Amino acid sequence: MLRRNFVKNVALSAAAVSVAPLAKAMPPISQPLGVQLWTIRSYLQKDLIGSLSRLAKLGYNEVELFDYDGTYWGKQPKEFSKICKDLGLKIISSHYMTGRHDGGKLPGTLLNGWQKAVDDSAAMGVPYMICAWLYKEERTSLDLYRQLAEMLNKAGETCSKSNIQFGYHSHNFEFPPIDGVVPYDLLLQSTDKDLVKMEADLFWIIKAGVNPVDYFKKYPGRFPLWHVKDMESGSEQFAELGRGIIDFDPIFAERKTAGLQHWFVEQDQSTRDLFESLEISRDYVKKKNYWLG
Predict the structure, then answer these.
(1) Distances (CA, A) of 45 to 34, 38, 48, 88, 135
(2) Alpha-carbon dihedral sign for residues 270, 275, 280, 283
(3) Whole-angstrom distance between the N-terminal and C-terminal Cα of the chain?
(4) Where are the beta strands (DSSP E) in the chain?
(5) Pairing relation of β-strands 238-239 and 230-231?
(6) With contact defined as beta carbons under 8 Å apart, do 11 and 247 qualify?
């Protein structure tokens, strides 16, 4: 559960339009602005190119993918990569599942077709591949986390052979101790620091009652990717950046300690149209000195 004292302190301290012409119509963006495509997942299913075009028009120019099954929303990897490139969207990372929850039946997971997934990412020029999520049955014991660490190391070795950095995305469930051991620390200590980096989801780490800066200092250089999203006061639900209680300034002040290279705006849910939410977050970020480059 969220430790409210910490959060209080944090609060205070057109498929019909061709792709190329859309890209030409966009103003140049001098700084990176990333977004995790999970934010607009329902839109992508209805209108893939039109939805990506809307992101580009908002000024987002780096993306993190998800839902790989050998294709991306029915597009072959190279075809999808070309769509993004023509729109001015640079693919930085992609998310994957372990495959443990269904015995390795799901394609495009660490247990099923991992080499092909790596080959596809390499062909697309994607520099990061991330283990995104654990199903409940994958996180009930320290033994499962130890097995996961071995799996992550192995996946990282495969990625490294193609000059891709592998990593693991945090939520809040890795922080409550099991038999006196914090699973997130177990993963950090049991994985190779070069083969397995961490994607820090600031929202979920804070919701677990943990200060992400403490982890940046304890494990410097292990956090090259971040998910950046805000938290509503009271409900502790997702909020547009600047509309919630998280003070990002002291967190971004430690970005060099963390080893930050890229970060992505993400909003899992919203009471608004999600493109409107992304526009609000974009406007907040433009007022801040969070840019990398």
Answers:
(1) 20, 11, 6, 20, 23
(2) positive
(3) 36
(4) 34-36, 62-65, 90-97, 128-133, 165-169, 196-201, 225-228, 230-231, 238-239, 262-265
(5) antiparallel
(6) yes
Q: Across residues 194-215, what is the average pLDDT?
A: 98
Structural domains of the chain, ranges and CATH numbers in brackets: 4-14+31-286 (3.20.20.150)
Beta carbons of 233 and 247 less than 8 angstroms apart: no
**Beta strand ranges found along 30-176 (DSSP E):** 34-36, 62-65, 90-97, 128-133, 165-169
Buried/exposed 78-107: b ≥16 CB within 10 Å, e otherwise: eebbebbebbbbbbbbbbbbbbbbeeeebe
DSSP for residue 107? S
Please tell me the distance from the alpha carbon of residue 231 to that of residue 238, in angstroms, as a whole number: 5
Reported as a single tens digit per residue, the pLDDT across 28-37 is: 446 899 999 9
Alpha-carbon separation of residue 26 from 2, 88, 154 (angstroms): 41, 9, 41
Structure tokens given for 232: 């509503």
In sequence order, the β-bridge partners of residue 62 are: 34, 90
Q: Which amino acid, residue 237?
A: Q
Residue 20 has pLDDT above 90, yes or no: no
Residue 200 · residue 211 · CB < 8 Å? no
pTM listed for this prediction: 0.90
Tell the residue number behind the tokens 């049955």, with chain if given. 137
Place of tokens 């908002």: 58
pLDDT score recorded for residue 30:
63
Tokens read off for 166: 């592998």
Q: Are 76 and 112 in contact (CB under 8 A)?
A: no
77-87 and 48-58 helices, crossing angle to 10°: 30
